[in-house]
User: Fold these one by one.
Assistant:
Number 1:
Amino acid sequence: MVFSFAAAIAIGTALLMLPMSRAGEGSAPFITALFTATSCVCVTGLATVDPATYFTPFGQAVMVGLIQVGGFGIMTMASLLALFISRRMGLRTRLTAAAETKSVGIGDVRRVLRGVFAITVTVEACVALALTLRFATDRPLPTAIWQGVFHAVSSFNNAGFALFSDNLIGYAGDPFVLIPISLAIIIGGIGFPVIMELLRRTRPRHWSLHTRMTLLMTAVLLIGGTVFMGWSEWSNPATMGGFGIGDKIDLAFFHSVQPRTAGFAAWDYGKATDETIMGTILLMFVGGGSAGTAGGLKVTTFLLLFFVIVAEVRGEPHVTAFDRRINPRVTRQALTVALLGVAAVVGATMALTEVTDLPLREVMFEATSAFGTVGLSMGITGKLNVPGQLIIIGLMFLGRLGPITLISALALRETHRHYTLPEGAPLIG
């Protein structure tokens, strides 16, 4: 999987370096093409140049193709990896996994692929139609169609690329643009297994533990994020202070969706309050659902860690969630992924502060956005030097493939010792 994504990035870099991809004279520099291709394939959305003016329609079409490959490929591969992992486990574990996920057949690869493809095409077509109808009101129909398709693909795949120089700031008070894009991001971000189960099982009592945890955490973050964004930016004249109440609510909801993990922006994050920046960093780090187009450490990981804390505070011997006892191996996996994610962001932030002269707040925001494959920025992406761009490139690649690769490796690796070591109790706290 790592090599396939690296190959896609290499092909995208070569295509973006063609003279026909650049709007100006000559071809795009290697580092610019590499950064853009990586951001597209990893569906991040960070860019050192303005895609609306720097690339030709051909170059923009290449970007759409790379975004679709990155989003569709990740969904497909994540789902297939989950099936593969279940297949490799013991019979009891396989039966448990099948019952938990309501799987018809663990090895039904064709059904999985058809399902992913159908969901992708349906959602993107509906969003593209809605956006085209809106854009057609003030521009030629061919332009409206292209912009509608581009932003539909970018939003469902949680990429965050826009064909406007100010991203979506020009549509800050337009619900006919913000709402369809937000819905596409949410659907793409909750994960393919959840979508399929919701289509098959309409009653909540029949939902799997994974679906319950994903939907609960998603709802909490969306509602909590909307309230938080509204509270922190309500009176800020540089963001939403000049809008009416209805538009403010739309903007707050829109910006509670974007950090998880699309990257569209309807205001300038460089002018946002410190509270908003910190809250956005936390949302970017959490991310969206597993086996979807969203990045981050995933909502189920953090909700599981919450249940671990609750169990420890209560003194309970086992971690439970929704009347289910959690396998200790799963809790260790969650802790491992979370701590390694923190290490990656902190390490990249320290490295960026060494190779650039940019403020720590902006650098941390950029590093978290890259690792979470979000694409939000405080306006420093274009200011990064070559070493800084290479760090962000590596962080985007790691953030897109690192968590799922690590989880798969941990799930497939199981070592049994034929002896038990004496217990130890180091001091904690």
Note: Residues 2-412 form one domain.
Number 2:
Amino acid sequence: MSASLILLIAACVYLAIGVPVAFALGLSTITALLISGNFPLIVLLKETFTGIDSFPLMAVPFFILAAELMSGGSLTEVLLKFAGQFVGHRRGGLGYTNVVSLTFFSGISGSALADAAGPGAMMIRMMDKAGYGRSYAAALTAATAIVGPIIPPSIIMIIYALADDRVSVGALFVAGLVPGVLIAVAMCVVNWKVSRDRNYKGDGEHPSREEINRTTWMAMPAILLPVLILGGMRAGWFTPTEASVVAVFYALLCGKYVYRTLEWKAVPNILSRSALLTASVLMIIGMSASFAWVLTIEGVPQIVANWIVELNLNAWTFLIVVNVFLLLFGIFIEPLPGVMVLVPILAPVAAKVGVDPIHFAMVVIYNLTLGMITPPVGGLLFVTSNVSRVPLSDLTRELKPFLWAHGLVLVLLTFVPWLSTWLPHVMGYQ
């Protein structure tokens, strides 16, 4: 039996019995190496460390730290006030506030889980007190938090650029802006429909112009962080990795000297949380690298590529097949290992059938991210259920209209490539 077949069977078994993804990938690699006997076990260590030995990958811990610093500096409250002043008075106002605030926060955190656990948890409590169904508030939060990895800066996009050298981190960051806004609009449409049907009312209070100006001025430093990152990268002032360090210092200055809510005594805790999250991300990346190495050395990417090419699929048919496959794959595995394992296999095939690499990247990232809110394994569902204290069954039931909306957005992103490619090409990315 070939090492690649043993690898895939072992991975399925380990995931089925509930082994965490990173350990499942590592254990399946060890199992394949031991049973096949074709390679020494030292390969696991070598490829694991090779997988994380990358300069662009250094951006991950710094973006995580920047997000933690911003969150520790009362950023959540500032963004909630900023978003609420525009839409809070309308029917379903707190739902709109939830969507808008999570969209803004995603431009800082780059993580769906961080969005749900931070401002999302706060919005669920506020919506519950205002008379919204708690399960509906939790479903809206989980569905909207998907925008976290889409709007830059995004950890998944950094990992994708490492797995496919045809795209750059900067191009992917820019490419995520239009799809991210489109997702937010789709969530607002669902909220409008549900709020009308259930008569969820706004707070009825429209703030004065002076209050709007004051709140906007307070929120401006936080909102400018993504602008600083993208603008600086496009102007050539710094690389994505250097941009992450700039983001850390910017977040520190904002929290300590602009908002004046970040205390030095809170910094050790922030560093500790960032280190733990970074360690978990890097462990997944390292184990995924060794897993992918076995597939590569066995020639699986070439076999799959040749098989698909022989089918004579056109670009659109290929994208439909990939969408179905990734939606099923994403149910059982997290986005990060999904990108590390699948992109080296699928990206070359996409290039052969004529799919734009930026367009394909956004389709893959969005598909795998959707897996976070699809039962039974969706990690975002468990986080949201935990912070909201809503049973998973109730959360899943309320999630249905949002899943339909996400499906429509996915169709648009798949068959309207310029939604992903227009802005990067305008800004000079190819």
Note: The chain is about 75% helix and 0% strand.
Number 3:
Amino acid sequence: MQNSFYNVRTCLENPKWEQANKREIQLYRRNNEIRSEFERDYTRILHSQAYRRLKHKTQVFFAPHNDHICTRMEHVMHVASVATTIAKYLGLNEQLAGAIAMGHDIGHAPFGHHGEDCLNKLLEQKEGHNAPKKFWHERNSLFFADYIETLPDPNGIEQPVNLTYAVRDGLICHCGEIDQQGIKPREEAIDLYSIKRPGFIQPFTWEGCVVKIADKIAYLGRDIEDARSYHIIDMAAYRELREIVGSTLGFERKGARALRSGKAVNTTTLINDLIVDLCEQSSPEKGLSFSDEYFKFILELKKFNFARIYKHWRLGEFAIYAENIIGTLFRTLQKTKIYAETGRVGQALRYYPKLCATFEDWLIKYTSYKPFIAERHSFVDRKPVLKYNTQPVFDLHDNESYTKCIIEFISGMTDQFAIQVYEEVITF
């Protein structure tokens, strides 16, 4: 029902408002500030380098030469569109939903989920089937927002983006892979780094819950559309898809819940139908939920996508390619630790100029690294010159911390940049 969530929206009257609006460090103020705190978060994410790089990161299909295949940035914009549409109809805070949606994938690895899996495998894992992953992009989005991403202040000094708690919470809690009906926000504010697994902790706000669902709505249809463009889905598979639609929803309107826009199975149709069903079925009492018909449809659609798209042999070959690139870069950079401790990374990576320049700048910004200048016979602190007001995030002398430093550096790469520096390494 329209505006049915108005009384529970994140606003000044909400008991969660003070915590939701909280920042770890107070932002600088402008004399003519006309934006809310969540609008400031939205634009800070929009202007961040991590967001800009999403246009060159894989969503599902590796397509550096195809302008019409969904990239990670387009996916993020789909999620933002879906989330703000739902929030507007239900009477929730559109600004908060939009900010969470815009930032939810800023910590995503290159090469999509294949890249994410590669980085996780490179880290030492705890044993056991249910042991938490060391690298997962939802947590990495929070990490990038808290420790990596910076923006210049009015004096040109690079400062942390310093997002509000509600947005930070939405970043780490956005995983939509856990299928459940009746999603409701949790009541308590927690240490966000105490969350050890993606998907199991609900967001702190209703707006965060909306983004969690919007993430799923956005990718289901678009992945099918891209798969058809690449002929991953043939006509037999598409007939199977239409049978799923017919068996779960039917092609004709049947009662108040069956909201089919037509026989087509494409991005616009699916997104519209799923949004409408969610908006009509949800209430603060039972939570954000789909009708039984549409929930069953989503489950069947996910099964179809995994079987017909994500497990396709071409994507399997792509995964091997991504693993080789990421693994090579990781092993190459691992060899630089002793050089980093003595300010001589440039010497270790002298044959790879692009990799050398970017990694050394990364170390300057996020560690205590000071390049050793042989002509001066001294170490040079370049942070003031580069206007970096950043504290050391990684310890050069600790093996685990240095490994994490490399992992985070790789995770921020675009597909194209990873390929370029990989070719530097393997080309003689």
Note: The longest strand covers residues 150-152.
Number 4:
Amino acid sequence: MSRITRRDFLKLTGGAGAASALGMLGVSSAHAAKHGNMGAHVVVVGGGFGGATCAKYLKRAGINVTLIEPSTKFITCPFSNYVIGGLQKIDTITQSYDALKKKHGVAVVHDTVTAIDAAGKSVKLKSGKTLKYDRLVVSPGIEFKWNAIKGYDEKASNVMPHAWKAGPQTLLLRKQLVAMKDGGTFIMVAPANPFRCPPGPYERASMVAHYFKQHKPKSKVLILDAKDAFSKQGLFVDGWKKLYGDMITWVPGAKGGKVSAVDTKTLTVMGELDKHKGAVVNVIPAQTAGVIAIKAGLANETGFCPVDPKTFESKIHKGIHVIGDSSIAGALPKSGFAANSEAKICASAIAAMLKGEPVPEESFVNTCYSLVGPTYGISVAGVYRISDKGITEIPNSGGVSPKEATDAFRAEEAKYTLGWYASITADIWG
């Protein structure tokens, strides 16, 4: 725990999701023009937590920015578990690009980048157009390792949803749960590290259990996990026991949790020790950097993209920056909040580089809230810095929710989740 109170820390970090020295990104366009930023053109690929943030803050620094994003609306993965559990509607987690375009002056192009020419500093779009850039920011999120589990390909996800990209898959999983008969088993297959949103599978299991408790009390939740430990494990397990009794069973990898194959026709998953048949099966596949990052040769043998932690410039292709889930960002988790923080650091670095100035030393923050139940919230927070080992967490800078906490405390943290979401989405798309 930090020397300030945990509650104060969360109030401080629960807002803009920013890093330290970002005042320069609030400079006027006139000031930026005077210092030579206005003539440069930065293209940002991907309009999620990382890309949209970076585009907005680059524009605030007076830089010409084009944001390329295929979708006209962005449905957030944060809070999508609440949709699955029946606590939210999908329209409440759907963000518009209107403010970025009309309020902040970002040029938003709804298209798909099909190729990146690093040497020629250009991107080719599905529409056939080509855009030149002075610097490129790539923030495409994640892609799935289809068939890493035998029988689980993209077609299989129409029967066993992953729901790890929010949208139609979220609604499909919700529909399956609603249609499921009471007494059935919901099976979740959780992936090995690294993957997007480390606490996400366990929050989802919690939301499904909450729905079952209200509407299908004879049903069970079975988590088959490739890992032997997971984020906020002690807090989740305590919450599960308190709220749901024996409804949720977690099987670690070492005890048969690793799944090698699935059968969509029988809704069966094959573990190392047993076969399990579910009424609804949710498979969260192993993940890599987004398709365009892989295609452009920005990833290494890990499947993710090595970057300079000070600037997020690719270690493989100069002039290209990779942020968010696709990047290798040291101790920072693959989360929306981390992507938001990385984006601001990246924007700050690009603004300095375009002006020929030294890149400022920055720090990063991450805060992650999870619901175990509608009035039972838990969280983890940390502050990170750049060291000779890359991005590392500052000792005693954050922490997790107290293990022994009152019902009132858990309820307050549950309320904080709403404030966190409203704040970060306003910071990005507002």
Note: The chain has two domains: 6-70+111-143+287-429, 146-283.
